[in-house]
Amino acid sequence: MDETRLINGHPFVSYTREIYSTEEMINRSEEFYQWINKRRTVRDFSDQPIPLEVIENIIKAASTAPSGAHKQPWTFCVVADPSLKKEIRIAAEKEEKESYDSRMSAEWLEDLKHLQTDWQKPFLEIAPYLIIVFKKAYDLLPDGNKRTNYYVNESVGLTCGFLLAAIHHAGLVALTHTPSPMNFLTKLLKRPENERPFPINPCGLSTPGNLCTKT
Q1: Is 67 a member of any domain?
Q2: How many helices (H) and strands (E) are present in the chain, helices listed first?
Q3: pLDDT (mean) for 132-142
Q4: Is residue 89 part of a domain?
Q5: For position 55, which CATH number holds?
Q6: Which pLDDT band holds residue 213 (cuts at 50, 70, 90)?
Q7: Domain total in the chain
Q8: 36-49: pLDDT as tens digits
Q9: For residue 99, how many C-alpha atoms fall within 13 Å in the half-sphere facing its CB?
């Protein structure tokens, strides 16, 4: 059992872990690189069901990411209901169509050509789960007062990185989808005023023979 000590009135837990030889560190770092380098961004998902427990474990892993003052300024919303996924797709495609038609610069559109994407986002309905991460701009206390969070974007970016690694580790695939603006998610998911949508992460199995770019 970990030993807990109070330092200036605050609890600290003793931390120890195994130490590897130089050779083993090199081997382990190389093995991890080779494994994580197999992760891909996927847009063609299978609709095959995935146990919810898998998604819950993935989110628990993502929540171990470091954060400013350990405030963990994030909320994970998991959407599996087909009708809600359809609403999200309709709202996202509305924003995406406007972006492709008028918001994006010529340079931006040129940079997207190799991905061969457009405003249509069927994966938002096909993927069995949408994992939507919200960042907490500040905390709302029970009495209605606000409490500051620190390095919010950096902290939520870190947990999203952990999320993608955990999805890959579970044998699943994902896409980081960021329609802009994403305010429709706050309304559709009935989130409080202190939360802002970060990315939508469709998550599931890849279709057989799926083609993807090396990203």
Answers
A1: yes
A2: 7, 8
A3: 96
A4: yes
A5: 3.40.109.10
A6: low
A7: 1
A8: 999 999 999 999 99
A9: 18
What's the whole-model pTM score? 0.93
- Answer whether residue 136 is part of any domain: yes
φ/ψ of 117, rounded to 5, equals -95, 160
Side chain identity at residue 205, one-letter code: L
The amino acid that residue 101 corresponds to is: D
